[in-house]
Amino acid sequence: MKKLYLLPNILHEESSWSYAPPLLDALIAESEKGGYSFLKRMGLPRLPVYLLNEHTERPEELLKVTEDNVGLISDAGLPCLADPGSSLVAAAQKRGIPVEAVPGPCSITLALQLSGFSGQAFAFHGYFPREEKDLLAKIRSLPKGMAHLFIETPYRTEKLFKALLTILQPQDQLCMALELMGPGQFVETHAVQEWKNRSLPSGKPRAVFVIQKATS
Fold this sequence. Notes:
The chain is α/β, with parallel strands linked by helices and 216 residues long. The protein has helices at 32-41, 85-94, 107-115, 132-141, 157-167, 192-195, and strands at residues 3-6, 26-29, 49-51, 69-72, 99-101, 122-127, 147-152, 173-178, 186-191, 207-212.
């Protein structure tokens, strides 16, 4: 591999956002469908698509797929954030292969920007714990004075939203950022006690949860 490009992907299938990608000889994606959809949307030829996901046992082997330029994408947003791409970047750096990140949309930073919370101190925690007792312990352990970001699979958005309303304190702030960069984008920030009188849009939206605990 001559160079590894970290390429942004759209956050929503109906997003019109685009950019001019570099010249590539192959693409690494989380799925074949996602990879070929990206190539078609970006007006690129049907390049070879190689997979990097939770089933990939030796990511470093992907560095040998070609001696030319390779692009790495995530299913949505930026690669290497909450996906397996970071392992490939680490392997490339170890072997002295140049890595270049192309800037683009990221649901994590967009949600933080739109939340109204200060970006001076924040933490991204990935997915919520699956077990109820672990979720309770996690939320209770979050320090005050900073924003805490979580993501979740669409089918669990409503369930997690309702759970947070029972776990968090009434004055804690919660931002719900749904379907970012899509036609149904919804972003609102309220105190928990106010959220109890509101509801989320129907369906199973992709969501970023941003929590900021009250300091008093």
